[in-house]
User: Fold these one by one.
Assistant:
Number 1:
Amino acid sequence: MRIAPLFALALFATPLWAGADGLTATGDLGLVVERATGSLLLIDRSDHAAVARIEGLGDLSHASLTYSPDERFAYVFGRDGGLTKVDLLTRTIVARTVQAGNSIGGAISDDGKLVAVSNYEPGGVKVFDAETLALVADIPAEGKTIGLVDVPGRRFAWTVWDSGDAFLGDFSGTEPQIVTLGNAGKNPFDAVLTDDAHTYLIGLFGEKGVTAFDLWDESPAPEKFLTDYGKTGEDMPVYKMPHLQGWAFTEGQYALPAVGRHELLWVDRASQKTVATTAMHGQPVFVIAQPASPFVWVNFATPLNDVVQVVDSRSHEVVATLTPGKAVLHMEFAPRGAEVWISSRDDNKILIYDTRTREKIGEIAAQAPSGIFFTARAHRTGL
Amino acid sequence: MRSLAAFVLAALPAAAEVPPDRAVELEHIVTQDCGSCHGLTRAGGLGSPLTPAALVHADAAGLALIILDGIPGTAMPPWRPLITEDEALWIADYLKKDPTP
């Protein structure tokens, strides 16, 4: 009878989905947010397959997530203020806290020790222990916080929609050190950190322009550019806010979504001068660089959201227009760029495209999918 | 406010009639597209809460006008290019009455 408990333990410890050797690796896994059902679909990138569904994550509209450095755990940031830690190996929720009334995103520190959440209501940033989800720091703000990013050295940067103020918080010591970077401008709607952690770029909705802070500088000052794009024409309604996470940095340029214009704006990174404008199918939402290539892929706001366009960053020309499905919400590239996975919310599908042929090579059923997140994000700054 | 109310009443029909198929589409728009800013459960986000409780004192015709023309200076866009006045009023009624998911 001594064997029985050991056998039971072995059954419990060996995941049912694991390979023949009883082991599983997470490097080619990913999670898809199923926004309406509050669930996550665990996907295997190599197999083009869904392998599990994890439920009970609350309101996942506008949800995003980050991964632990070992690519085992995902931290999911829900709209309803829920912060959920999910184990990709056991496919279960291992910790969950409803930490605010309304939140918009989060980030994990470079060492993987802290998870920060950006909150709308009450406005501010809360920082949690990545192991236990215990509260480590609570930084209130005078409004809704947006554009939260991880900065090397166990730091985070964020911006306040209502006041326009941008902040840098250092959580490497016993007490958090919060400094005001400066004022970005009127109604910043999102922000992003360049992959070299050099420039914190903040997009403005309440006025034209983008504000940059040089985070390599000891005392960064706001530098505003793109302040007069489209000033000769009437702005169009913005039916969905552009997202800056995944802003394309390519060929020494920023490829930025115009706000209220059906255009892509190309800005030289060094001079911050506009070098080109590309007329697009609709209001760009995500503008994402295809890794290891000169191309950027763009999706659009409703009602023109059944199209994805590919633009060459050298010629600034649209080189392909695809119609993957209804209500395309997100695109995620394989880390080396061979494939792009595209979510079609209203077709309840993930479409997989070969990025060289731009042909569809697979699809996966999903319930109203939005964000797609591969575990390789664990090793990228600012995601 | 009285003059605005009078204008609203004059500008919009008193009751909204939309075909059942379109009603299903409008419900989808409310959940998914309005939900982008107001939350899938309409508890609010970048946009204000749109639950029946939050809208208890709001006038349906006034809400319909906000839906149609947006609120200048904010992130609320005008939906008039995409929906009719009847449909906006239908959405306003729906928001005021329908329990959130």
Number 2:
Amino acid sequence: MISKSRRGRLLAVAAVAALTLGAAACGSDDSSQPAAGGESSAASGPITITLQTFGGGKNFGYKEAVDKWNAEHTDIKIKYDNLTDQFEQVYWPQMIQWLQSGAGAGDVVGIDEGGMGLAKAHPEWWADLGEFGLQNRQSDFAAWKWENGVTADGKLFALGTDVGGMSLCYRRDLFEKAGLPSDRDEVSKLWPTWDDFIAVGKKFQSKVKDTKFVDGTNTLYNVVLVQEAAKNGNVSYFDKDNNLIVDKNPAVKTAYDFAQKISQEGLTAKLRNFTPEWNTGMKKSQFATLGCPSWMLGVVSGDGGAGPDFKGKWDVAAVPGGGGNWGGSWLAVPKQSKHPKEAAQVLDYLTGKDAQVSVFNYAGNMPSNLQAQQDPAVQGAKNEYFNDAPVGDIFAKSASALQPVFLGVKHAQVKNAIESVVSAIDDGSVPYANGWQKLVDDAVKAAG
Amino acid sequence: MTKLILAITIVISAFPLYYMIVIASRTNTEATDMPPPLLPGGKLGENIRSVLANPDAHYLTGLTNSLIVAATVTVSVVVISTLAGFAFARLNFKGGKILLLLVLLTMMVPLQQMGIVPLYRLMVNLEWVGSIKAVILPYLLNGFGVFLMTQYTEQAVPNELVEAARVDGASTLRIWWNVILPAVRPGMGVLGINTFMLNWNEFMWPLIVLTPDNPTVQVAINSLNAKYGTDYVLIFSGTLMSILPLIVVFIAFGRQIIGGLMEGAVKA
Amino acid sequence: MSLHVDAGQPTRTPIPPSRRRAHPRSGRSFLTWLDLKAAPYLLISPYYLLFLAFGLFPLGFTLYYSFFDYDLTGTVEWTGLGNYTAMLGDASFWKAVVNTLAMFVIATVPQILLALLLANALNKRMKAQLFVRMGVLLPLVTSVVAVAVVFTQLYGRDWGVINWILSWFGVDPIDWKAERVPSWIAIATMVDWRWTGYNAIIFLAGMQTIPKDLYEAASIDGASRRRQFWQITIPMLRPTMIFVVLNSTIGGLTLFSEPTTFYNGNVHGGTDSQFQTVSMFVFEQGFREFDYGYASAAAWLLFLLILIGSAINFLLIRRIGGNK
């Protein structure tokens, strides 16, 4: 009675059922494991500390420091997990969700400056680093960098990793092609102001057709914003009482206007930063300059960015408008970590002098650790990838003088909304004429 | 004309999969060449080895998890639906009509999307975030399955058959096992395939409730994509490997799957 | 089909139902009585228990949450219908609604027509029948995110195959992620690629149940093949059509995976939410902005949208079948 096809089907069902049962039997152990932290019974094997970060290219630059730790330690291993390029859009909301739900966050997690306001407002998310003796690290940091890692009720929860600093990266070979000087000092002299920068851009664009002068609107928008913020009381989207001041702060309008201008002048490759298209744009020489806080050097030189094929073709010049501090991150230990003591130990190491010097030499992120900043290996450093640019001179000399821009509790959310608009005027989906109003409206909504 | 339509269809069906192989067998530089590469290169083995060696690529876990989740959900939904379908189609009981109407109403509700906030908070309270239990249980509820099996039982099992068994003294459960199940098997087949496939491709809820180191296959590919945005070779080798098991099953059981799908679709 | 009642059954003497009901006190017939009365409820109970836990509970709480205003900083405030009134005036919500409907129409209409055409072609005698059917069904056994990743690459602005092909015809590169209508088309093709073959197989199954003599009679009356298709096949397929259309309606109006992957896993759906769907909007409000109340209100409006969409489709299909 049983037809051939029916028997086959029965067989299939049986196979699936058997597979399921088998898989469920060995899978149940997996699923009951805590999501992060690689729990293993204390007696057997080393403890694994998961380090979660974000960023393009070499991101936090910890690769060599982590390799070194893992080679030297048998009891505690670090698992370095860079989750995504995008902080505001992907990493931070996901992290907030994990911190709230009590599962998913690593043992040590990176937080961008834009997330620190919210992180400080939620002391219940974090382990107290003071319990593990990290209070004694205070002298390693500038006052503002230290204080930002302390919650309102005085709990130390985060230590600084890098600081921003500011420069402008450019492609030597493409500048030569455009008949522009390619030496970094001469290039720096080309653009004391942003108006000069645009003038150089037009000259470049008239000579070179298949490469645009800048990546898109977003990167330089942020550069100008921090420069202007410094002139306006060091505030950007929020005042120090956490009121949204996007429409009142002239720094925002100036930065927006500049972004609009470079787009209107046709100098942008219309690539939004930290997207795959943007990264591919570096590999395909789609743009010739890039606003470069210190950590951007690692983004460019990393495999995900321009990568090894472009070694020696990039260089670092002074930024128009002089200085600025964009970005810089902290490391914290979430309360949900199963091994807070070991995590704090790892955090201590990663923010310490040796690891930070290694980060600077490997990726380029400027240490916020003062001892590392003073270290001759940092002060005198040249970056081979960037045509031996004296990055020690460029970033380290001014690092201790950097001032923070105040960022509100919802800075990351507002920044995300605003940057969407700044990119949208560039890719043409929002007309220039409506851009500013939409930026203000969306910022209000995101802060709401 | 007919042949042309079918040929074009098959080419279009296969092209994205073919393109996956093309990129997975090349280098990253070639992947973004212009004009784009259209023939496979020689690096498939090498690329797949590098995916396997990559500690961040959790899609082996993802594949196992997806298989456990989809199979568990499928088996449960089919059983629950045949039980209820039998009751609604062939047993008389008070409130039956109204209860069936309720099923029809819930069929329209995309529960896992609509109830996403409370479901998430429920999982947080149960401490199931990051565990595959969280992506199994909500999916056991499937109004479409009950509806389908009710329809199917009505068509496939004459009332007299049930009555005859009843007269022979068989209990309700025994009737279900000996009379209903053999008769509605094609319906179970189509429901099973449907459920498995939809569950396998579920993305929004797992994305919220699972964590990167214990993902389903969709979440695993998404994380790989987020981490290695421009490493096309790695991503494409990963996606290729993630769909391979299903394709193998499909080729092995294609006759049964298509037969079951068609047989089941007709009567429901 | 024969009955296989267990031989171990102590008695095969049929007990008339009326007698069983008359003597509920005697042990065995009490069990039988209980079996008759309680078993149906027992059989449906798994479904309804699940319905309580994962249906009614979330729906009720979604409604409850939608009356509150949640904030990232942890404050929760009663706002009554505030979320709903705010949403009715929220341009980004309506944008998501328009995007969803547009993509649904762009995807579903050609998909159903193509599936019918394909089913009609498959319904003829041919060699390698199984191979052809498997080829048509192939997209179904892939993973949605994997496929979206491939399509995203194909639709690249600068390095994508599709723009390259279009350039042969003198078309300037299209920025598929920035321009609204092209982004809809790109996503609709991903949806269609996955579902057209499946629907064709379902239609094919329906077509094979249509009695041959209907066509023979029509041929004798001199009706052309085309006429037969529209006059016989389509009306006879009505039940299958309802199944397919309802399925695509629910699937289409809750679209999430393809557009999210198209923007690298970001639920904003483009710089200006060009292709953000309502599901993505719910996700963004709930799990990017952490405004659980607003997300819950949006979820209810999504439900409303699906109800209206399904009702309209249902009526439309009834009309199609009605003029046979």
Number 3:
Amino acid sequence: MSKKIENTIDFSMILASSVHDMKNSVGMLLASLEGLMDEMPPVNAAQNKRFSTLHYEASRMNGELIQLLSLYRMQNNLLPVHIDEHYLIDILDDQVARNHMLAETKGVEMNIQCDPDLHWYFDHDLIGSVVHNILVNCVRYTQSKIEISAKIEDEILCVSIADNGPGYPPEMLQRPTGKVEDAEISKGATHLGLYFAQKIAECHKQQEKRGYIELTNGACLGGGVFKLYLP
Amino acid sequence: MNSGVRVAGQINYSKFSVLVADDFSSFRNTVNGMLGNLGVNQVQMACSAQEAINTCKNHTFDIILCDYNLGSGRTGQHVLEELRHKRLISRHTLFIIVSAESSRNIVMCSYDCEPDDYLMKPITGKMLQQRIDRLLIQRAVLTKAYRALDKHDYSTAMDVLVDLSLADDRYSSMAQKLLGTVFLQQKELDKAERLYTKALEVRQLDWARLGLAKVKQLRGELDVAGEWLETIVADNPLFLPAYDVLADNWDKKGEKFNVQYTVQRAVDISPMSILRQKHLANVATNNNDLITAIDAQRRSVKLGEFSCHGIAEDHFTFARISSLALEREMEVDPKIGNEALAILDAAKEQYQLTDVQHAQCDLLASRIHSLENRHDLAAELLRAAESVLEADDSGIETQLDRVLALQSANEDEKAEKLLFQLQEKYGHDQAALEKLDAFLNEPASDSNREFVAAINHEGINLYNEGKFDEALECFEKARKLFPKHVGIQLNIVQALIGKLKIGSAEKAEADACYSSLELVSSLVDEQHPQYERYKRLRAMASAF
């Protein structure tokens, strides 16, 4: 029995541990890059663009690696979901601050529309990383603006992230509730961020209700709108 | 107060003193720069866990920003545990762990030592400011309560916290959690129950569910508490505090195997907690599951290298359990003896041992050498240890190690003599006598004498009702404590004969009956008060 286990290498575990390593490297890369940008601010537009590309790609990699790790943990029932009362403004402020430099170098303006007293029940690390991923994605596609808002409708929290870019492509909108199929992920052309967001949303249950995500186009800024619903 | 964060920026940072700990200078410099921009004048740096701890010995900080990974195996969690354990920081210092990890995962190992916040790398100046602002305001809100708690002025603390928890703002939930723990600590169970029940009306949150289960436990409603705790861990299997309370609950019910099973579950989820590993090793040893005990104790020793909870005694315990496994010829790694000797040597390197502890090391090593038939070496170490112990008043634990070393060296007479001396010396020390009981035929301590009497009484009643299996269970419990107690052994024989008579005994039980009789025959002679009974039972057993 034990011999058999030794012989069959658990590839997903190897992947997970190397993802962990990569993530640490990317983290260092990002920190050094930010230090560099601090010490030697770009002097012309071309340099600025290079910095912003470097920063954007590194953040994206970082975000994806974290998502991969979380999904691995979720699949192995090792992802702690710690639901407690949190103030929405804290989470949104945090994520905007975290992506502040990225948005600035890209010339994107981020706005938060949220009652400072609005509070709800969720895992704030997990929801924070969902918001972060969507923001990073929006910075890539938007023209100049991102608006983040949160409110409670019918006992469900709705966090919405809208931009004034070209919007989500039609094939992504056609899915019933923005549902990303497991099969789609395995086909390669992934929407890992959305898949992650959906899985995290589903971890939030209240009585019979579960969280979900929804994609639309239009709304206030005319571009894509990502909505996260948590019961 | 509600929009505390919104008024941030008005905080005067110039009076704060901050410690930044990270093994990378680039991070320290970056954070230093960020703090400078906030107006902080006093920033100190530490590039290792040890340096961070040492710095806190001479200085009180308002804020500590500590990287999780501090190099050479030590983490920010270790630093926090040590600072709190040695009382180098109070609740008034904000401790923030900075890490590259996405969530609280990394600190699943923490026992009940949580930092005030986690910050995820890469951090930006703005993010840092927002978090610190929020935490400072939060701390300011709770300061009055913390001050009262520091002074053990619980009634003031409760008054303050009641007001805060009723405020229905962003600090009320935090105040409720703290108030709940103060109520429990002060045995204000009705108040605690009301608080948790009220919180649960809004949402089934884990902290409130756990709190309510604790109320039930403290009221002695162990079955209800147990049921609730099982539901909590079933719903959220990674919620570690619930396992700790559940293990405690089984312990209160006296169900040692369930204690072990529960601690094992928590350890499987979070193998990095040294205190849980030690707990597991301890319960497993008592349950005679030495394989588990060895594994858990090995990990405890390993984790102790970096933790303030690591002590030389952990190394000694490993040697003791290993000897027990060798003595019982269990199927353990044949190199276990060498491993134990190496772990004893490591104790000498890692800790500054006293003379008595050195002698204890020698006794433990001597026992292992005896068990592995290196008699000369064993004798040499035993003599060396004894020469120290003769001169020194060493305490019961060391003396018991000496008894074991003598027994393993087949110096039975000396062991018996020592046991006799110890009974005299500790005649008024019930705790010591309880420890001695394990070596004696009859318990010497009052508590164990009463325990044996009570459990024997219960078993005999069950036996008289013909409930042989239940009676056996009773006697087995007593035998576990006093394997050499003649009366208990004979009670077991008698119950087994009862089963044999009605034809419900299995082969294994017939064997058990025989081996108990064999053991008794080695313990009694014709002068023994139970000798006649032994002879009678022996005759009865031979009929089957």
